[in-house]
C-alpha cells in the first residue's frame, strides 16, 4: 500500500510539473479550489483546439535568415494508412498554412529509430503507434500526455474501448485514429452468417463438397491475437487498461470450458499449428475455396480481389453457454515531447483523430475510431461495431512474455494436451513473471 501511495504522489507531482502549473494553481487543486464553488470546465471542441494555435506563426527563420514554412514531420509504419495521412496533411496545409511531411518507417526498429532521431535532434513531431506500446513510450519519455481531449470529449466522440486502450498510469495518451480486430468471413453463395461456432461444425458435418476443393473453416491458429477470443469473457488479463500486474487469472473453470471447446474443434478442422499462416487464409479467399474464416480488418481493402462473394459478420460465440472475447489494437497519433511545434503537433494529431476521421475509410479502408461519423459502408459499420465489443491489446511491459507463453499453451491444447494442465502452467509462468 505504501508503495502505491508513493507512486500515486510521484505521478501527481509529474502531472503538475508537466502542465507548467503555477504554485498557486497547484495549491488550489490540492485544497479543493479554495473558498468558492469548483470551476466548471468548458467542454472541449475542435474549435477550442484551433484556438491553441491562434496567432502562432506558420513560418520559421532559416539559417540563411529567410522565412520558410513551418513544417511538421510525421512518422508511421503501416503503408496502407499512408494515403490517409497524406490527404490529411494536404488538407491541414490548406487550412492552416503548415506543411506536414509524412514519412513511412520500418516497423521492426520503429521505437529505437525514434529514440535515436530524438537524440540527434531530428525526431518526428508526431508519431503513429499502437496502444500496446503506450506504456513503453511514456516511460521512455517519447510521448506527451493528451491534454486537449477532456474526459467529456472522449466519451462524446470515442467508444470506451478507445479510452481504455489509450490510458496508462491514470493519464490519456495519444489521439486514436484507426483500429484492427478479428472478424468472421464466409462464402455467402453456399452458406449463411454463423450464429455460433456450433453453426460451423454443423455445416462441416453436413456439407458435401462436390468439387473437392473447399476448406470449411480456417484461422491462423499460430497467432495468439486470433486465438485469444477462445479464452472467453472470464479470462482476467492485466486489468481494464492492460497494465495491472495484480490482475491475471487464466485458469478458472470458465476458461477451461472455453478452451476445451477450442480443442474439440480439432476433430472437425485438422489445422497444423506449425504450418498455419494468415497468408494461407488470404490465398484460400482469393481462390474462392474457403467457406468460413477468421480474418482481420485488413481484408476490408481486399474484398474485391477475392474469388467469390464473401460477406463479413462479427465473430460469434462458441455456443449459447460459451462466449468469446475479441482483442483489438488501436492506432493513435502521439506528440513527441521533443517537438518544437507542440501546439501544431497536437492540433494535427486531433485533426487525424477527429476532424478528418470521416474520410478515413474512403481513402484507406481503415476503420476510424471516432464514434460519431457517418458510416455509409456496411462493412465499415460492422467492423466498428465489433471493435466496440473488444478489449484492448494489453500494454504492460510483461505482455510480450504472455504472448510467447500463450502461443505455446494454445498449440499444446490444440494438439491434445490436457486443457487444465496447460492453463495452470501458463498461469504459473505469468505469476512468476508478474511478481
Report on this model:
With 435 residues, the protein is α/β, with parallel strands linked by helices. Helix content is 40%, strand content 17%. It is built from 17 helices and 16 strands. The strands form four sheets. Strands 3, 4, 5, 8, 9, 12, 13, 14, 15 and 16 form a ten-stranded mixed β-sheet that branches. It has a two-stranded antiparallel sheet with strand order 1-2. Strands 6-7 form a two-stranded antiparallel sheet. Strand 3, helix 4 and strand 4 form a beta-alpha-beta unit. Helix 16 packs antiparallel against helix 17.
**Segments where pLDDT lies below 50 for 5+ residues?**
1-39
* Class by alpha and beta content: alpha/beta
Average the pLDDT over all residues and give the rounded result.
90
Biggest sheet layout: 10 strands, mixed
Give the CA-based shape: globular
Rg calc: 24 Å
As a percent range, the share of helical residues equals 25-40%
| Residue share in β-strands | 15-25%
- What is the overall number of helices? 17
Topology:
Layout: H1 2-18, H2 23-30, H3 46-51, E1 59-61, E2 67-69, E3 71-76, H4 82-96, E4 99-104, H5 110-119, E5 126-130, H6 134-139, H7 151-157, H8 160-165, E6 167-168, E7 171-172, E8 175-187, H9 197-206, E9 215-218, H10 224-227, E10 236-237, E11 248-249, H11 253-264, H12 278-287, E12 290-296, E13 310-313, E14 327-335, H13 342-355, H14 360-364, E15 367-368, H15 378-387, E16 391-392, H16 399-414, H17 419-434
Parallel strand pairs: 3-4, 3-5, 9-12, 14-16
Antiparallel strand pairs: 1-2, 5-14, 6-7, 8-12, 8-13, 8-14, 8-15, 10-11
Amino acid at each position: 500500500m505504501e508503495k502505491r501511495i508513493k507512486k500515486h504522489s510521484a505521478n501527481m507531482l509529474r502531472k503538475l510539473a508537466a502542465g507548467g502549473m503555477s504554485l498557486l494553481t497547484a495549491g488550489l487543486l490540492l485544497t479543493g479550489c479554495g473558498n468558492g464553488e469548483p470551476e466548471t470546465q468548458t467542454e472541449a471542441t475542435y474549435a477550442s483546439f484551433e484556438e491553441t494555435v491562434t496567432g502562432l506563426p506558420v513560418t520559421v527563420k532559416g539559417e540563411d535568415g529567410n522565412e520558410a514554412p513551418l513544417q511538421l514531420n510525421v512518422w508511421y509504419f503501416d503503408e496502407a494508412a499512408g494515403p490517409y495521412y497524406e490527404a490529411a496533411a494536404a488538407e491541414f496545409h490548406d487550412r492552416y498554412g503548415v506543411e506536414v511531411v509524412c514519412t513511412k518507417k520500418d516497423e521492426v526498429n520503429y521505437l529505437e529509430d525514434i529514440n535515436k532521431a530524438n537524440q540527434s535532434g531530428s525526431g518526428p513531431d508526431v508519431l503513429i503507434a499502437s496502444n500496446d506500446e503506450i506504456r513503453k513510450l511514456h516511460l521512455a519519455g517519447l510521448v506527451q500526455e493528451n491534454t486537449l481531449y477532456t474526459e467529456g470529449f472522449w466519451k462524446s466522440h470515442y467508444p470506451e474501448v478507445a479510452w481504455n486502450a489509450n490510458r496508462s498510469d491514470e493519464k490519456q495518451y495519444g489521439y486514436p485514429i484507426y483500429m484492427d480486430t478479428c472478424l468472421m468471413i464466409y462464402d455467402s453463395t453456399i452458406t449463411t452468417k454463423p450464429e455460433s461456432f456450433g453453426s460451423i461444425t454443423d455445416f462441416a458435418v453436413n456439407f458435401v463438397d462436390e468439387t473437392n476443393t473447399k476448406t470449411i473453416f480456417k484461422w491462423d491458429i499460430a497467432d495468439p491475437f486470433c486465438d485469444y477470443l477462445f479464452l472467453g469473457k472470464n479470462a482476467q488479463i492485466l486489468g481494464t487498461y492492460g497494465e495491472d500486474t495484480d490482475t491475471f487469472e487464466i485458469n478458472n473453470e470458465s476458461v477451461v470450458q472455453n478452451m476445451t471447446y477450442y480443442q474439440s474443434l480439432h476433430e472437425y478442422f485438422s489445422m497444423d499449428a506449425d504450418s498455419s499462416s494468415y497468408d494461407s487464409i488470404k490465398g484460400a479467399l482469393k481462390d474462392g475455396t474457403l467457406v468460413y474464416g477468421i480474418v482481420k480488418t485488413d481484408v476490408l481493402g481486399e474484398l474485391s480481389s477475392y474469388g467469390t462473394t464473401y460477406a463479413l459478420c462479427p465473430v460469434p460465440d462458441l455456443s449459447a453457454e460459451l462466449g468469446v472475447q475479441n482483442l483489438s489494437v488501436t492506432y493513435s497519433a502521439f506528440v513527441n515531447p521533443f517537438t518544437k511545434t507542440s501546439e501544431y503537433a497536437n492540433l494535427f494529431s486531433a485533426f487525424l483523430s477527429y476532424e478528418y476521421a470521416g474520410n478515413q475509410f474512403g481513402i484507406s479502408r481503415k476503420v476510424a475510431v471516432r464514434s460519431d461519423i457517418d458510416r455509409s459502408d456496411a462493412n465499415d459499420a460492422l467492423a466498428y461495431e465489433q471493435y466496440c465489443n473488444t478489449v484492448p491489446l494489453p500494454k504492460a511491459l510483461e505482455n510480450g512474455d504472455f504472448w510467447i507463453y500463450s502461443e505455446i499453451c494454445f498449440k499444446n491444447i490444440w494438439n491434445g494436451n490436457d486443457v487444465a494442465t496447460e492453463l495452470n502452467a501458463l498461469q504459473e509462468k505469468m505469476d512468476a513473471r508478474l511478481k
